[in-house]
What does this fold into?
Amino acid sequence: MKLPSSESLARGFFVVSLGLIAMVYGIVSSWWGWFPAPQIGEAHRTYLDVSRNWRNDLGLEPTRHLVKPNGPQAGNPGRGYDLREGSKRAPGYILIAGLSDDQDVSVFAVRLMDTNGDEVHRWPIFYENFDPDTPAQNTMLHGMEVFEDGSVVVTFDVGNAIARVDQCGETMWSVRGGYHHSISRDDTGGIWTWEGENMVRLDENTGETTFSMHLRDHVVNAANGEQRAIFDIRVRMPDDADGEVTYLHDPFHPNDVEMLRSDIADAFPMFEPGDLMFSLREPNLVGVVDPETGILRWWQHGPWFKQHDPDFESDGTITVFDNATGVGQSRILRIDPESREVTTDFAGSSSEPFYTWRRGKHQTLPNGNLLLTEAEHGRLLETSADGQVIWTHDMVWDTESNLIVTEARHVPEDFFTDGLPSCNEIVAAR
It folds into this structure.
């Protein structure tokens, strides 16, 4: 038998060594995010996204906007508006933001629903009117605010615009930029939202930016960096003592900002009128900041997890939409910012499931009821103060799917100055 030559052995040893080195480097690179681990991960995520949503991206079917129904009506092909017998819902109208249900993949809509669950008006939202460079079917209508003249302001996920349209969907103003998530009005003619990592105020009549505060520059690094430890949770440690701490991908994911209005400021002695409350999903952080200095007046991590939509309430508490991602049961929590006592206003159950792993909104209504947006199941709920479900509304696409609902908003019966919005003209994209 012929034995391997020393040259063959050396070559084999070299190949095995390369394999071991590659394996060790692969493990270490995945730990520390070295090349090519991030690139491989991104490529894999892109492949999965394209394989799931290629029909959406070609404008054939809105797969990015479709979700499975939830709740007692989930298996009912005729599901829709379900008013529970003997229940008392809050008077007024509900605005609902999302994709249109007319089987067009790229047309969004804000709908107005009355107390019978009937649609009484619809604002068509044509994204291409605001940003012709981005395929409309790859964006998602998210933030929505309504005005007494019947106009609405909207923002988009993965979009590049904020816009105000009249009751017929005609553009009143639009501004290009990375505006995202929620919109809220203040009491001085402004609207608040996020542009990237900037908390911004826009003039509601023109769209002009009148205030901007950058999260990292003006809040995280305020007071000579004394607040960094509150925010810098999703970071990567350096390789050595002289290295720099770096942020992981999307370390904050800001999703809400609102101003403390003067009409309820007396209920919050810890804060001042004009203070800003914000929500950062990734560090599970809700905070209140002085907009002039960037100094936090109050903050708390959890017990909410991947939360959205904190609201100042007139009784001096703060309510939070706790997604409780991964648990399967979302909640509406209420916290006293002074005592830090946390109570639960509503939570799902086996008989009344309520869960959205991302997105989600809530609103406390004038009679104490709650309006809930179960985004990732395409469903709205109104619940009483004692947690009883009053009505639900599935936003039906077909027998098996609902449309994602990004926001619902209640307005009183006399909200609109000139009565219900109406438009007899056919509004087309242009």
